[in-house]
């Protein structure tokens, strides 16, 4: 983990990530998925991030992707759905420190004031002109970014955090 003026940043991680597409009505009662926009749920092993009315990103340990896909396919076996391993699609940076939200606010249009932005929230947005997913967890903020943008985003963090 590196630290720059009130913000700490992990080395890029590549957790298991599964994209789930299904009608919210068809998923109800079969899977524990967040129904409120821009929120996520966790069951201890997986985090399910709401990305849209019929799309969720399921984040798990890299070695549990096959199990996660199997679990979701079994729960949805008689319903129209899509479950796809997208683990290589995004790198993850974990941010900590008291100034992390102030730094992020310099690069995105989302209101990150703690009165509005709190743990259990997530959002797709642009950060420094880069498409990202920002997830607010109890222990800090997680940023999902495509690997091709990772060096640009890391340089932006270093520049802005100074």
Which labels suit this protein?
single chain; alpha+beta; 4 helices
How is this fold's topology laid out?
Layout: E1 2-4, E2 7-9, E3 16-21, H1 24-27, E4 40-42, E5 47-52, E6 55-60, H2 65-75, E7 82-85, E8 91-96, H3 100-105, E9 121-127, E10 130-137, E11 140-145, H4 150-161
Antiparallel strand pairs: 1-2, 2-8, 3-6, 3-7, 4-5, 5-6, 8-11, 9-10, 10-11
Provide a descriptive summary of the structure in words.
The two termini are 16 Å apart. A 6-stranded antiparallel sheet has the order 1-2-8-11-10-9. A 5-stranded antiparallel sheet has the order 4-5-6-3-7, with helices on one face. It contains 4 helices and 11 strands. It is 20% helix and 36% strand. The protein is globular, with a radius of gyration of 16 Å.
Q: What is the count of DSSP helices, taking H or I runs of 4+ residues?
A: 4
User: How many angstroms separate the termini?
Assistant: 16 Å
State the strand order across the main sheet: 1-2-8-11-10-9
Radius of gyration: 16 Å
Largest sheet: 6 strands, antiparallel
Structural class: alpha+beta
Q: Taking all residues together, what is the mean pLDDT?
A: 93
Query: Which band does the percent of strand residues land in?
Result: 35-45%
Q: Which spans have pLDDT < 50 for at least 5 consecutive residues?
A: none
Q: Helical proportion?
A: 10-25%
Number of strands: 11
What does the overall shape look like? globular
The helix/strand order is EEEHEEEHEEHEEEH
